Fold:
Amino acid sequence: MKKRTLCIATTLAFLSFTIVSCGSNSVENSEVIEENVIAETIDEVIEGIEEEIVSDEVDTATGEKLFGENGCVACHQKDTKVIGPSLIAISEGYAGDKATLASFLNGESDPIIDPEQAVLMAPQVEITKKMSAEERTALTDYILSH
Structure:
């Protein structure tokens, strides 16, 4: 998505340069207006790109908050196996596979890390299943950020 938006912005910039450079030496009022419209369009595209970049950033702060508030921290520590695997072990095991981890947190699949512990995790999965999609995404992003 970012590459496509960047391509559009680059194309608009190139077209505006071409239109401006191909004009005659005398700048007419309509050409000035056209240049302003192109400049405004480029500014809007750049603003849209910046908004996309911000919205695509991983929301680990919200995920960390949910991790603590929902009791996950009682069984999962950053780098130490307590009852469940550490966050680092989970992150390494899922190797950035957000969809598979999300599927587990949605109660749609078995865990790939310590599957023998699935029975202990079942009550927590019921909690994560009740989260909104945005909350589960934030929680998944937080777990995979380790």
The chain has two domains: 2-56, 60-144.
